[in-house]
Amino acid sequence: MRIVTVLGARPQFIKAAPVSGAFADAGIEEALVHTGQHYDAEMSEIFFNELQIPAPAHNLGLGGGSHGAMTGRMLEEIEKILLEDRPDWVLVYGDTNSTLAGALAATKLHIPVCHVEAGLRSWNRRMPEEVNRVLTDHLASKLFCSSEPSVAMLEREGITEGVEVVGDVMADASRLAQEIIGSRESEFMTCHDPALLGGEFALLTLHRAENTDNPIRFRTLVEQLNKFEMPLIFPVHPRTKHALEREGLELAPHVVQIMPAGYLEMAALLGSACLVLTDSGGLQKEAYWAKTPCITLRTETEWTETVDCGWNVVIGEEVGELKSFVKQVGDLPEWQPLYGDGHAAERIVASLLS
C-alpha cells in the first residue's frame, strides 16, 4: 500500500508523527508532501529527528498570498505529484488550505481521501478553517473522528459511510512528546526569566485574527491581561506583535514575552503552568492532557468536550470579564480521559489495511 500525506503547517507534522511511525511499523509506504503553507524556523532536521518524522518527499514552498490563490497553486502542484505517484490513498489532517487542496486534487483524480480529525465544527463560516474542514469531510472516503460528537456532526450533514472513531492523534503526539521530554524538561524551558518558573504562572497564546484584527476586542484583551494577577509567559506570534505596534499598546512587566516556542518547549511549559489562556484550537486539548485548566479567548470552540467536562471555559463576547473566568476554572471536577487513549494511529493503520 502506498499513501501520500499532504501537510502544510507544523501542527500537522506533529499530528503526522505517530501516524507515520505506525505506517512504517506496518510496512506501508508513505510519501510526505509539504506545501509550505506556513514557514516555521523550528521545522529543522532536529525537529524531524526528535519526533521521528520522515523527511518530506516534496517541498512545494507555496506559502503566502490570498486563500484562493494559495489553494489554487497547491491544487496544481499536488495534482502533478499524484499523477506521477498514483497512491492508494491521500491522507490529510485538520482544516488548513493544504488539507482542502490535497482532498480536491485526490478526488478529481479518483484517489480516495482519508481525513484525520473529521467532523469538527465551530459553526462559524467566517473562519477559513471551517470551510476547509466541511468541504474536506464531504470529499473523504474515510473519516477518522476524535470522538463521538464528531460522528453526530457528520450524521447531521448526511455523512455516515466510512466514519470511524479512532481517538485523537494529538493524544498520541502528546504521549510521544512527554516521552521525549522526560528528564530533559529543563532543556525545553527556555523562558528568559527562569525565576518565574519557580512559582505559579499561566501560559498565554494569542494570535487569531478574530482577536488581533478587532481593535476594540484586542485593546480590551490587552487591558485585562495587564491586570492579570499572576505572571504570564507569552510566546508572541508575529501577527500579535504587529497588532500591538499598530494599536500603540504595551504589555505589563508580568506578561513575559518570549519568542514563538517550539512544540517540545510548549509541552514542557504546559506541564508546569497552572493555567492556560489561548485562542488556539489544539492547545485547548493539549492543556487538558497536561491536566492544566484552560480559558479559551474565543467566541466558540470546536473542542466542546473540554468545556462540557469543566476544564475549559470560553469567554465569548465577555472580553472585559477575564477575571471572572479564572474563578470558573478554580474548582476542577475529576479528570476524565477524552479523545481516546493515545493509540489513534494504530487504529487508522488497521482501518486502512482492512
What does this entry look like structurally?
The longest helix is centred in the N-terminal third of the chain and has 19 residues, at 67-85. The strands form 2 sheets. The protein has a 7-stranded parallel sheet with strand order 3-2-1-4-5-6-7, sandwiched between helices. The protein is 44% helix and 15% strand. The mean pLDDT is 90. The protein has helices spanning 10-25, 45-50, 67-85, 97-108, 128-139, 148-156, 169-181, 185-188, 209-212, 215-226, 238-247, 263-272, 282-289, 304-308, 322-328, 344-353; strands spanning 2-7, 29-34, 58-59, 89-93, 113-118, 142-145, 163-165, 202-205, 232-235, 255-258, 275-278, 294-296, 312-314. The relative contact order is 0.12. The radius of gyration is 20 Å and the shape is globular. Helix 1 (10-25) links the parallel strand 1 and strand 2 (29-34). Helix 1 (10-25) packs across helix 16, helix 3 (67-85) packs across helix 4 and helix 4 packs parallel to helix 5 (128-139). It is an alpha/beta fold. It has 2 domains: 2-168 and 340-353, Glycogen Phosphorylase B (Rossmann fold), CATH 3.40.50; 185-328, Rossmann fold (3-Layer(aba) Sandwich). It starts with a strand and ends with a helix.
